[in-house]
Amino acid sequence: MIFDLETKQRKEIWNYLSEKLESYYANTEIIDVVNNENRAEVLKTIDADFNTARSTEEAIDKVVKGLKQHAVHTPHPLYYGMFNPRSSFPSIVADAITATFNPQLAAWGHAPYAVEIEHMLIQEIGKKFGYEQPNIDGVFTTGGQEANLTALLTALNNKFSDYAEEGLHAVSGTPIIYCSKASHHATIKAAKICGLGINSVKYIEVDDNQKMIPFKLENEILNDLSKGKIPLMIVSTMGTTGAGAIDPINEISVIAKKYSIWLHADAAYGGAVVLTQKYKYLQKGIEKADSITFDAHKWLSVPMATSMFITKHRNILSKTFSITANFMPQEEDDISKLGSYTHSIQWSRRFIGLKLYMPLLVFGWKGFDETISHQMKMGQLLKRKLEANNWKLYNNTELPIACFTDVEFGNEPEFSTYIYESFLETGEAWLINYPVGNKFTLRACITNYNTTEAHLDKLINLLNKKRAIYKKEHNLVTI
Ligand SMILES: *Cc1c(COP(=O)(O)O)cnc(C)c1O
Protein backbone atom coordinates (compact mmCIF):
# COMPACT_ATOMS: atom_id res chain seq x y z
CA MET A 1 0.00 0.00 0.00
CA ILE A 2 1.51 3.32 -0.97
CA PHE A 3 -0.05 6.49 0.31
CA ASP A 4 1.84 8.45 -2.33
CA LEU A 5 0.28 6.67 -5.31
CA GLU A 6 2.43 6.64 -8.49
CA THR A 7 3.69 9.72 -10.34
CA LYS A 8 1.65 8.89 -13.42
CA GLN A 9 -1.50 8.37 -11.37
CA ARG A 10 -0.92 11.59 -9.47
CA LYS A 11 -0.62 13.65 -12.62
CA GLU A 12 -3.85 12.17 -13.91
CA ILE A 13 -5.56 12.86 -10.60
CA TRP A 14 -4.36 16.49 -10.46
CA ASN A 15 -5.81 16.97 -13.95
CA TYR A 16 -9.02 15.20 -13.06
CA LEU A 17 -9.39 17.24 -9.90
CA SER A 18 -8.64 20.54 -11.56
CA GLU A 19 -11.30 19.83 -14.21
CA LYS A 20 -13.87 19.08 -11.51
CA LEU A 21 -13.04 22.10 -9.37
CA GLU A 22 -12.78 24.44 -12.33
CA SER A 23 -16.18 23.28 -13.51
CA TYR A 24 -17.68 24.20 -10.11
CA TYR A 25 -15.75 27.47 -9.79
CA ALA A 26 -16.54 28.66 -13.32
CA ASN A 27 -20.18 27.59 -13.25
CA THR A 28 -21.20 28.30 -9.67
CA GLU A 29 -23.80 30.71 -10.96
CA ILE A 30 -25.85 28.14 -12.86
CA ILE A 31 -26.52 25.89 -9.88
CA ASP A 32 -29.11 26.58 -7.19
CA VAL A 33 -27.67 28.55 -4.26
CA VAL A 34 -29.35 26.28 -1.74
CA ASN A 35 -31.33 23.06 -1.45
CA ASN A 36 -34.04 22.54 1.10
CA GLU A 37 -32.17 19.88 3.05
CA ASN A 38 -33.46 16.69 4.58
CA ARG A 39 -31.15 14.83 6.94
CA ALA A 40 -32.13 11.34 5.76
CA GLU A 41 -31.31 12.35 2.18
CA VAL A 42 -27.93 13.73 3.21
CA LEU A 43 -27.01 10.60 5.16
CA LYS A 44 -27.98 8.42 2.20
CA THR A 45 -25.30 10.08 0.07
CA ILE A 46 -22.46 9.42 2.56
CA ASP A 47 -20.46 6.32 1.71
CA ALA A 48 -19.10 4.74 4.91
CA ASP A 49 -17.86 1.53 3.35
CA PHE A 50 -14.16 1.44 4.19
CA ASN A 51 -13.76 -2.26 3.52
CA THR A 52 -13.41 -1.70 -0.19
CA ALA A 53 -10.56 0.24 -1.76
CA ARG A 54 -11.40 2.54 -4.66
CA SER A 55 -9.70 4.90 -7.07
CA THR A 56 -8.98 8.47 -6.05
CA GLU A 57 -11.10 9.65 -9.01
CA GLU A 58 -14.03 7.72 -7.63
CA ALA A 59 -13.46 9.28 -4.20
CA ILE A 60 -13.28 12.75 -5.75
CA ASP A 61 -16.55 12.15 -7.60
CA LYS A 62 -18.31 11.15 -4.40
CA VAL A 63 -17.13 14.15 -2.41
CA VAL A 64 -17.66 16.74 -5.13
CA LYS A 65 -21.15 15.42 -5.78
CA GLY A 66 -22.00 15.43 -2.06
CA LEU A 67 -20.79 18.99 -1.56
CA LYS A 68 -22.56 20.15 -4.69
CA GLN A 69 -25.85 18.63 -3.59
CA HIS A 70 -25.80 19.34 0.11
CA ALA A 71 -24.33 22.74 0.91
CA VAL A 72 -25.35 26.36 0.73
CA HIS A 73 -23.23 27.59 -2.18
CA THR A 74 -21.48 30.50 -0.54
CA PRO A 75 -19.35 31.16 -3.69
CA HIS A 76 -22.55 31.94 -5.66
CA PRO A 77 -23.11 35.61 -6.65
CA LEU A 78 -26.72 35.37 -5.44
CA TYR A 79 -25.63 34.26 -1.97
CA TYR A 80 -26.52 37.39 0.01
CA GLY A 81 -25.47 35.74 3.13
CA MET A 82 -23.60 35.72 6.30
CA PHE A 83 -19.99 36.79 5.83
CA ASN A 84 -18.92 33.68 3.90
CA PRO A 85 -17.12 34.72 0.74
CA ARG A 86 -16.29 33.19 -2.58
CA SER A 87 -12.56 32.39 -2.26
CA SER A 88 -10.27 34.29 -4.61
CA PHE A 89 -8.42 31.88 -6.87
CA PRO A 90 -4.89 32.57 -5.56
CA SER A 91 -6.11 31.87 -2.03
CA ILE A 92 -7.39 28.47 -3.15
CA VAL A 93 -4.00 27.74 -4.71
CA ALA A 94 -2.46 28.74 -1.36
CA ASP A 95 -4.36 26.04 0.47
CA ALA A 96 -3.14 23.41 -1.99
CA ILE A 97 0.46 24.55 -1.50
CA THR A 98 0.12 24.50 2.28
CA ALA A 99 -1.34 21.01 2.28
CA THR A 100 1.47 19.71 0.07
CA PHE A 101 4.42 21.25 1.94
CA ASN A 102 2.69 20.95 5.30
CA PRO A 103 5.08 23.37 7.02
CA GLN A 104 5.01 23.28 10.83
CA LEU A 105 4.77 26.83 12.14
CA ALA A 106 4.93 25.97 15.84
CA ALA A 107 8.58 27.00 16.02
CA TRP A 108 10.55 29.39 13.83
CA GLY A 109 13.26 26.86 13.04
CA HIS A 110 10.86 24.45 11.36
CA ALA A 111 9.40 26.90 8.88
CA PRO A 112 11.22 30.24 9.00
CA TYR A 113 9.94 31.40 5.62
CA ALA A 114 6.31 30.78 6.59
CA VAL A 115 6.68 32.17 10.13
CA GLU A 116 8.31 35.35 8.82
CA ILE A 117 5.59 35.85 6.19
CA GLU A 118 2.89 35.66 8.85
CA HIS A 119 4.87 38.00 11.08
CA MET A 120 5.26 40.48 8.22
CA LEU A 121 1.55 40.29 7.31
CA ILE A 122 0.52 40.98 10.90
CA GLN A 123 2.79 44.05 10.87
CA GLU A 124 1.42 45.29 7.53
CA ILE A 125 -2.23 44.76 8.47
CA GLY A 126 -1.56 46.29 11.91
CA LYS A 127 -0.23 49.39 10.16
CA LYS A 128 -3.35 49.56 7.98
CA PHE A 129 -5.36 49.74 11.21
CA GLY A 130 -3.18 52.66 12.33
CA TYR A 131 -0.95 50.89 14.84
CA GLU A 132 2.67 52.04 15.02
CA GLN A 133 5.19 49.51 13.90
CA PRO A 134 7.57 48.87 16.74
CA ASN A 135 4.61 48.01 18.98
CA ILE A 136 2.66 45.71 16.68
CA ASP A 137 2.32 42.06 17.49
CA GLY A 138 -0.26 39.44 16.68
CA VAL A 139 -1.04 35.98 15.43
CA PHE A 140 -3.08 34.33 12.74
CA THR A 141 -6.00 32.49 14.27
CA THR A 142 -8.58 30.06 12.97
CA GLY A 143 -11.39 32.58 13.28
CA GLY A 144 -12.84 35.55 15.09
CA GLN A 145 -13.82 33.25 17.92
CA GLU A 146 -10.20 32.28 18.61
CA ALA A 147 -9.10 35.90 18.16
CA ASN A 148 -11.70 37.17 20.66
CA LEU A 149 -10.72 34.44 23.12
CA THR A 150 -7.09 35.49 22.67
CA ALA A 151 -8.13 39.07 23.44
CA LEU A 152 -9.82 38.06 26.66
CA LEU A 153 -6.81 36.03 27.76
CA THR A 154 -4.45 38.93 27.06
CA ALA A 155 -6.75 41.28 28.99
CA LEU A 156 -6.65 38.91 31.97
CA ASN A 157 -2.85 38.66 31.81
CA ASN A 158 -2.58 42.39 31.48
CA LYS A 159 -4.83 43.09 34.46
CA PHE A 160 -3.62 40.44 36.89
CA SER A 161 0.15 40.18 37.08
CA ASP A 162 0.06 36.67 38.58
CA TYR A 163 -2.49 35.34 36.14
CA ALA A 164 0.05 33.22 34.23
CA GLU A 165 1.07 31.40 37.40
CA GLU A 166 -2.07 31.42 39.50
CA GLY A 167 -4.80 31.50 36.88
CA LEU A 168 -8.22 32.45 38.19
CA HIS A 169 -6.85 32.29 41.76
CA ALA A 170 -5.00 35.51 40.91
CA VAL A 171 -8.33 37.19 40.26
CA SER A 172 -9.42 38.96 43.41
CA GLY A 173 -12.99 39.82 42.46
CA THR A 174 -15.49 39.49 39.64
CA PRO A 175 -14.11 40.66 36.29
CA ILE A 176 -16.69 42.12 33.92
CA ILE A 177 -16.66 42.23 30.12
CA TYR A 178 -18.75 44.83 28.28
CA CYS A 179 -20.09 44.57 24.76
CA SER A 180 -23.14 45.87 22.96
CA LYS A 181 -26.44 44.02 22.73
CA ALA A 182 -25.82 43.73 19.00
CA SER A 183 -22.36 42.19 19.36
CA HIS A 184 -21.37 38.67 18.31
CA HIS A 185 -21.81 35.86 20.82
CA ALA A 186 -18.14 34.98 20.36
CA THR A 187 -17.50 37.20 23.40
CA ILE A 188 -19.83 35.28 25.69
CA LYS A 189 -18.36 32.01 24.43
CA ALA A 190 -14.86 33.28 25.18
CA ALA A 191 -15.97 34.18 28.73
CA LYS A 192 -17.41 30.70 29.14
CA ILE A 193 -14.29 28.97 27.80
CA CYS A 194 -11.79 30.87 29.93
CA GLY A 195 -13.58 30.25 33.21
CA LEU A 196 -15.19 33.63 33.87
CA GLY A 197 -18.61 32.40 32.93
CA ILE A 198 -21.49 33.79 30.94
CA ASN A 199 -22.59 36.15 33.71
CA SER A 200 -19.32 38.06 33.47
CA VAL A 201 -20.55 39.56 30.18
CA LYS A 202 -22.68 42.71 30.32
CA TYR A 203 -24.66 43.69 27.27
CA ILE A 204 -24.83 47.44 26.82
CA GLU A 205 -27.90 49.09 25.28
CA VAL A 206 -27.73 50.18 21.65
CA ASP A 207 -29.27 53.18 19.92
CA ASP A 208 -31.69 53.07 16.97
CA ASN A 209 -28.75 52.37 14.68
CA GLN A 210 -27.64 49.35 16.75
CA LYS A 211 -24.55 51.17 18.08
CA MET A 212 -23.41 50.92 21.68
CA ILE A 213 -24.48 53.94 23.77
CA PRO A 214 -21.33 55.21 25.51
CA PHE A 215 -23.02 56.81 28.54
CA LYS A 216 -24.88 53.57 29.24
CA LEU A 217 -21.51 51.83 29.16
CA GLU A 218 -20.05 54.28 31.65
CA ASN A 219 -23.10 53.92 33.92
CA GLU A 220 -22.66 50.15 34.00
CA ILE A 221 -18.97 50.50 34.76
CA LEU A 222 -19.65 52.91 37.63
CA ASN A 223 -22.34 50.63 38.95
CA ASP A 224 -19.99 47.62 38.85
CA LEU A 225 -17.17 49.57 40.51
CA SER A 226 -19.50 50.58 43.32
CA LYS A 227 -20.21 46.90 43.91
CA GLY A 228 -16.50 46.06 44.00
CA LYS A 229 -16.47 44.33 40.62
CA ILE A 230 -13.52 44.62 38.23
CA PRO A 231 -14.17 46.10 34.78
CA LEU A 232 -11.82 44.00 32.63
CA MET A 233 -12.53 44.43 28.94
CA ILE A 234 -14.74 46.42 26.58
CA VAL A 235 -15.49 44.97 23.15
CA SER A 236 -16.26 47.61 20.55
CA THR A 237 -17.81 45.94 17.52
CA MET A 238 -16.61 47.59 14.31
CA GLY A 239 -19.38 46.24 12.09
CA THR A 240 -21.99 44.06 13.76
CA THR A 241 -22.79 40.69 12.27
CA GLY A 242 -26.49 41.49 11.98
CA ALA A 243 -27.01 45.08 10.89
CA GLY A 244 -23.41 46.22 10.23
CA ALA A 245 -23.37 48.82 13.03
CA ILE A 246 -20.02 50.36 13.95
CA ASP A 247 -19.74 51.26 17.64
CA PRO A 248 -18.48 54.81 18.46
CA ILE A 249 -14.96 53.69 19.33
CA ASN A 250 -13.57 57.18 19.93
CA GLU A 251 -16.00 57.84 22.76
CA ILE A 252 -15.67 54.29 24.05
CA SER A 253 -11.88 54.59 24.10
CA VAL A 254 -12.10 57.63 26.39
CA ILE A 255 -14.09 55.56 28.88
CA ALA A 256 -11.71 52.61 28.56
CA LYS A 257 -8.76 54.87 29.30
CA LYS A 258 -10.47 56.63 32.20
CA TYR A 259 -11.09 53.35 34.03
CA SER A 260 -8.01 51.43 32.73
CA ILE A 261 -10.01 48.81 30.88
CA TRP A 262 -8.64 46.72 28.00
CA LEU A 263 -10.32 47.87 24.79
CA HIS A 264 -10.81 45.21 22.16
CA ALA A 265 -12.08 46.10 18.68
CA ASP A 266 -14.01 43.28 17.06
CA ALA A 267 -13.51 44.19 13.41
CA ALA A 268 -13.99 40.61 12.19
CA TYR A 269 -16.05 41.78 9.24
CA GLY A 270 -15.97 45.59 9.02
CA GLY A 271 -12.19 45.86 9.40
CA ALA A 272 -11.76 45.16 5.68
CA VAL A 273 -12.56 48.76 4.78
CA VAL A 274 -9.17 49.87 6.15
CA LEU A 275 -7.77 48.46 2.89
CA THR A 276 -9.69 51.09 0.89
CA GLN A 277 -8.78 54.73 0.46
CA LYS A 278 -12.40 55.81 0.23
CA TYR A 279 -13.92 54.01 3.21
CA LYS A 280 -11.11 53.58 5.73
CA TYR A 281 -12.49 56.59 7.63
CA LEU A 282 -15.27 54.28 8.85
CA GLN A 283 -12.77 52.54 11.17
CA LYS A 284 -11.23 55.77 12.45
CA GLY A 285 -10.25 55.48 16.10
CA ILE A 286 -9.67 51.73 15.94
CA GLU A 287 -5.97 52.39 16.53
CA LYS A 288 -6.94 53.38 20.06
CA ALA A 289 -7.95 49.79 20.81
CA ASP A 290 -5.49 47.60 22.69
CA SER A 291 -6.27 44.71 20.36
CA ILE A 292 -8.18 43.92 17.19
CA THR A 293 -9.94 40.88 15.71
CA PHE A 294 -9.90 40.77 11.93
CA ASP A 295 -11.17 37.86 9.83
CA ALA A 296 -9.58 37.43 6.41
CA HIS A 297 -12.06 34.64 5.72
CA LYS A 298 -14.90 37.14 5.67
CA TRP A 299 -14.43 40.21 3.53
CA LEU A 300 -10.94 39.45 2.21
CA SER A 301 -12.37 36.50 0.28
CA VAL A 302 -10.04 33.75 1.41
CA PRO A 303 -11.00 30.22 2.51
CA MET A 304 -11.70 29.43 6.15
CA ALA A 305 -10.08 29.38 8.70
CA THR A 306 -8.10 32.62 8.38
CA SER A 307 -8.31 35.31 10.98
CA MET A 308 -5.99 37.62 12.89
CA PHE A 309 -5.52 38.85 16.43
CA ILE A 310 -3.47 42.06 16.37
CA THR A 311 -2.30 44.10 19.34
CA LYS A 312 -0.19 47.15 20.03
CA HIS A 313 1.21 45.58 23.21
CA ARG A 314 4.32 43.84 21.97
CA ASN A 315 4.89 41.59 24.94
CA ILE A 316 1.40 40.58 25.88
CA LEU A 317 1.11 37.47 23.70
CA SER A 318 4.32 36.00 25.08
CA LYS A 319 3.21 36.85 28.58
CA THR A 320 -0.08 35.10 27.92
CA PHE A 321 1.08 32.02 26.06
CA SER A 322 4.77 31.41 26.71
CA ILE A 323 5.27 28.29 28.77
CA THR A 324 8.56 29.38 30.32
CA ALA A 325 7.96 29.91 34.02
CA ASN A 326 9.47 33.35 34.30
CA PHE A 327 8.67 35.32 31.25
CA MET A 328 11.15 38.13 30.61
CA PRO A 329 10.11 40.92 28.25
CA GLN A 330 13.57 41.07 26.65
CA GLU A 331 13.05 37.52 25.38
CA GLU A 332 10.68 39.09 22.92
CA ASP A 333 13.50 39.81 20.47
CA ASP A 334 14.48 36.19 20.32
CA ILE A 335 13.34 34.69 17.04
CA SER A 336 12.10 31.65 18.90
CA LYS A 337 9.33 33.89 20.19
CA LEU A 338 7.92 34.17 16.69
CA GLY A 339 6.78 30.57 16.70
CA SER A 340 3.15 30.02 17.50
CA TYR A 341 3.66 27.65 20.39
CA THR A 342 4.92 30.45 22.64
CA HIS A 343 2.66 33.02 21.12
CA SER A 344 -0.84 31.69 20.60
CA ILE A 345 -3.46 29.18 21.65
CA GLN A 346 -2.27 26.75 19.00
CA TRP A 347 0.80 24.51 19.09
CA SER A 348 1.24 22.59 15.85
CA ARG A 349 -0.17 24.77 13.20
CA ARG A 350 -0.60 25.19 9.50
CA PHE A 351 0.45 28.06 7.27
CA ILE A 352 -2.79 30.01 7.68
CA GLY A 353 -1.33 33.31 6.43
CA LEU A 354 -0.47 32.00 2.97
CA LYS A 355 -4.15 32.34 2.04
CA LEU A 356 -3.76 36.09 2.44
CA TYR A 357 -0.17 36.34 1.18
CA MET A 358 -0.88 34.73 -2.22
CA PRO A 359 -3.74 37.07 -3.24
CA LEU A 360 -1.72 40.07 -1.97
CA LEU A 361 1.21 39.02 -4.18
CA VAL A 362 -1.12 38.61 -7.16
CA PHE A 363 -3.52 41.56 -6.77
CA GLY A 364 -1.66 43.89 -4.40
CA TRP A 365 -3.34 46.34 -2.00
CA LYS A 366 -4.90 47.98 -5.06
CA GLY A 367 -6.78 44.81 -5.97
CA PHE A 368 -8.26 44.57 -2.48
CA ASP A 369 -9.14 48.28 -2.50
CA GLU A 370 -10.99 47.89 -5.82
CA THR A 371 -12.80 44.71 -4.83
CA ILE A 372 -13.96 45.92 -1.41
CA SER A 373 -14.98 49.28 -2.89
CA HIS A 374 -16.98 47.46 -5.58
CA GLN A 375 -18.83 45.55 -2.87
CA MET A 376 -19.48 48.79 -0.97
CA LYS A 377 -20.94 50.25 -4.16
CA MET A 378 -23.15 47.22 -4.75
CA GLY A 379 -24.42 47.58 -1.17
CA GLN A 380 -25.41 51.21 -1.75
CA LEU A 381 -27.07 50.29 -5.02
CA LEU A 382 -28.98 47.43 -3.39
CA LYS A 383 -30.34 49.77 -0.72
CA ARG A 384 -31.45 52.31 -3.32
CA LYS A 385 -33.13 49.64 -5.44
CA LEU A 386 -34.93 48.19 -2.43
CA GLU A 387 -36.34 51.57 -1.49
CA ALA A 388 -37.39 52.24 -5.06
CA ASN A 389 -39.40 49.00 -4.90
CA ASN A 390 -41.30 49.79 -1.70
CA TRP A 391 -39.04 47.92 0.66
CA LYS A 392 -38.16 49.80 3.82
CA LEU A 393 -34.67 49.71 5.32
CA TYR A 394 -34.43 49.23 9.09
CA ASN A 395 -30.68 49.46 9.50
CA ASN A 396 -28.41 52.40 8.92
CA THR A 397 -24.87 51.46 7.95
CA GLU A 398 -22.39 52.39 5.26
CA LEU A 399 -21.37 48.72 5.08
CA PRO A 400 -23.04 46.63 2.36
CA ILE A 401 -25.72 45.09 4.57
CA ALA A 402 -29.42 45.79 4.09
CA CYS A 403 -32.00 44.85 6.72
CA PHE A 404 -35.40 45.49 5.20
CA THR A 405 -38.96 44.41 4.95
CA ASP A 406 -42.11 45.42 3.19
CA VAL A 407 -43.35 48.80 4.41
CA GLU A 408 -46.50 47.16 5.77
CA PHE A 409 -45.07 44.02 7.33
CA GLY A 410 -42.39 45.38 9.65
CA ASN A 411 -43.90 43.76 12.73
CA GLU A 412 -44.93 40.46 11.23
CA PRO A 413 -42.44 37.62 11.64
CA GLU A 414 -44.66 35.48 9.35
CA PHE A 415 -43.80 37.64 6.36
CA SER A 416 -40.02 37.56 6.63
CA THR A 417 -40.14 33.86 7.53
CA TYR A 418 -42.28 33.21 4.48
CA ILE A 419 -39.81 35.00 2.19
CA TYR A 420 -36.82 33.25 3.77
CA GLU A 421 -38.41 29.81 3.44
CA SER A 422 -39.54 30.50 -0.06
CA PHE A 423 -35.90 31.15 -1.06
CA LEU A 424 -34.89 27.86 0.57
CA GLU A 425 -37.62 26.16 -1.41
CA THR A 426 -36.67 27.59 -4.79
CA GLY A 427 -32.90 27.94 -4.34
CA GLU A 428 -32.68 31.04 -6.54
CA ALA A 429 -30.88 33.17 -3.94
CA TRP A 430 -29.99 33.08 -0.28
CA LEU A 431 -30.62 35.57 2.49
CA ILE A 432 -31.79 35.34 6.10
CA ASN A 433 -34.55 36.78 8.21
CA TYR A 434 -33.17 38.79 11.10
CA PRO A 435 -34.79 41.00 13.73
CA VAL A 436 -33.49 44.57 14.03
CA GLY A 437 -34.85 45.86 17.32
CA ASN A 438 -38.52 44.84 17.16
CA LYS A 439 -38.68 44.75 13.37
CA PHE A 440 -38.68 41.38 11.66
CA THR A 441 -36.53 42.12 8.65
CA LEU A 442 -34.82 40.27 5.86
CA ARG A 443 -31.07 40.67 5.72
CA ALA A 444 -29.05 40.77 2.52
CA CYS A 445 -25.29 41.30 2.54
CA ILE A 446 -22.93 41.67 -0.42
CA THR A 447 -20.48 38.91 0.46
CA ASN A 448 -19.41 38.00 -3.04
CA TYR A 449 -17.00 40.03 -5.19
CA ASN A 450 -18.72 38.72 -8.33
CA THR A 451 -22.11 40.19 -7.40
CA THR A 452 -23.04 42.79 -10.03
CA GLU A 453 -25.99 45.11 -10.64
CA ALA A 454 -27.66 42.39 -12.74
CA HIS A 455 -27.59 40.07 -9.70
CA LEU A 456 -29.12 42.82 -7.57
CA ASP A 457 -31.94 43.22 -10.06
CA LYS A 458 -32.51 39.50 -10.00
CA LEU A 459 -32.82 39.56 -6.20
CA ILE A 460 -35.20 42.51 -6.26
CA ASN A 461 -37.39 40.84 -8.89
CA LEU A 462 -37.54 37.66 -6.85
CA LEU A 463 -38.40 39.60 -3.69
CA ASN A 464 -41.15 41.53 -5.46
CA LYS A 465 -42.58 38.32 -6.90
CA LYS A 466 -42.57 36.55 -3.54
CA ARG A 467 -44.16 39.53 -1.81
CA ALA A 468 -46.94 39.57 -4.40
CA ILE A 469 -47.61 35.85 -3.84
CA TYR A 470 -47.69 36.38 -0.06
CA LYS A 471 -50.18 39.20 -0.39
CA LYS A 472 -52.36 37.16 -2.72
CA GLU A 473 -52.27 34.13 -0.44
CA HIS A 474 -53.21 36.26 2.53
CA ASN A 475 -55.87 38.21 0.66
CA LEU A 476 -54.04 41.45 1.24
CA VAL A 477 -54.84 44.05 -1.32
CA THR A 478 -52.78 47.18 -1.33
CA ILE A 479 -55.04 50.18 -1.82
C1 LIG B 1 -18.04 36.36 12.43
C2 LIG B 1 -17.82 37.16 13.61
C3 LIG B 1 -17.18 36.62 14.75
C4 LIG B 1 -16.80 35.17 14.84
O1 LIG B 1 -15.77 34.91 13.94
P1 LIG B 1 -15.50 33.45 13.33
O2 LIG B 1 -14.49 33.73 12.28
O3 LIG B 1 -16.82 32.96 12.79
O4 LIG B 1 -14.97 32.60 14.43
C5 LIG B 1 -16.94 37.47 15.80
N1 LIG B 1 -17.30 38.76 15.76
C6 LIG B 1 -17.93 39.31 14.69
C7 LIG B 1 -18.30 40.76 14.71
C8 LIG B 1 -18.21 38.52 13.58
O5 LIG B 1 -18.84 39.06 12.53
Number of strands: 11
In the CATH scheme, what's the topology name of the largest domain?
Aspartate Aminotransferase, domain 2
Largest sheet: 7 strands, mixed
Number of domains: 2
Give the ordered list of helices and strands: HHHHHEHHEHEHEHEEHEHHEEHEEH
Pfam families: Pyridoxal_deC (PF00282)
Keywords: Aminotransferase, Decarboxylase, Lyase, Pyridoxal phosphate, Transferase
GO molecular function, one term: transaminase activity
Cofactor: pyridoxal 5'-phosphate
What would you note in describing this structure?
- The protein has a 7-stranded mixed β-sheet, with helices on both faces. The chain has a 4-stranded antiparallel β-sheet with strand order 8-9-11-10, covered by helices on one side.
- It is 42% helix and 12% strand.
- The protein is of the alpha/beta class and 479 residues long.
- The protein has 2 domains: 103-352, Type I PLP-dependent aspartate aminotransferase-like (Major domain) (Aspartate Aminotransferase, domain 2, 3-Layer(aba) Sandwich); 359-473, Aspartate Aminotransferase, domain 1 (Alpha-Beta Complex).
- It contains 15 helices and 11 strands.
- It has helices at 7-26, 39-44, 56-69, 89-101, 112-128, 144-159, 163-166, 186-193, 214-226, 249-258, 296-299, 316-321, 354-388, 413-426, 453-473, and strands spanning 137-141, 175-180, 201-204, 230-237, 262-266, 291-295, 307-311, 391-393, 401-406, 432-436, 439-445.
- It starts with 6 loop residues before the first helix and ends in a 6-residue tail after the last helix.
- Bound molecules: pyridoxal-5'-phosphate.
- It comes from Jejuia spongiicola.
